[in-house]
Amino acid sequence: MAHDAGGWVDYVIASDDPADPALLEEFRNLAWSYGQLMQFIVADPANINEETAAKMDEAQEAENEMQARIAARGKALRDAGHAPADEAAFKAWRASWVPLASHIGNDGPLPEA
Predict the structure, then answer these.
(1) How far apart are CA 38 and CA 35, in angstroms?
(2) How far apart are CA 106 and CA 58, in angstroms?
(3) In the chain, N or C terminus with fewer CB closer than 10 Å?
(4) What is the percent of the chain with per-residue pLDDT over 90, rounded to a whole number?
(5) What's the whole-model pTM score?
């Protein structure tokens, strides 16, 4: 059974197509890169400028394109009769992201501004 937070990526995680791990790795690397950009921007108010705004726009475009690719691949797998990842498989995939998020001090809700 799929987990509660299921989505198109679950179909890609569960896929046995050799090309799909590369897509997931690209997705992970894009997320890591975005996180690094955000960490740089918030490290110093001087980093909030036109150059970083342009980089944020580029990163958002890349994220939108990646999400579209994940959705298209997930839909294709679903339509071909593949099952989505179960909770254990999803958690195993997410566990591979732990080094990317290990610098985050608070993984809960952000405080009110």
Answers:
(1) 5
(2) 27
(3) C
(4) 57
(5) 0.76
